[in-house]
Amino acid sequence: MALVWPSKVPARLNRADATFPVTDARRRFEPSDGPGRIRKRMSAALRPISGSIDMTFTQAVWLQKFWDVDTHGGILPFWFPDPLMHGFFLVGDASEAAIVNARGFGLALDRWILCQFGQEPPERLPLGAQWVRIKISIVALP
Description:
The protein is mainly beta.
């Protein structure tokens, strides 16, 4: 069973520096004569995601524990809230008003992705007395 991103650590990436590149699962062949060919290399491709998360020093300690102990130094996979969809509210087409349930509460998306930490471990950048910015890269698994 895979781990889950710790609830004590924020999971919302800063939009200013978050990157979500489109992955390419195609293989190109360039023959000696004639047009090139493209075919699918695999049915699914890894999707790299990188960015930074601002958090308190205490939350950074929880993240360090998650990295060191829970994922055994970033090796084990874990469930992470999808940064493109998780927690955003559904809106209607015409009026752009939030879609609500029978009790009047807005409906928010709840989507998680299975991933692993990327090539580099999380990097800590101090922002002030109690705040740090963690640069993080993860790879969404197919």
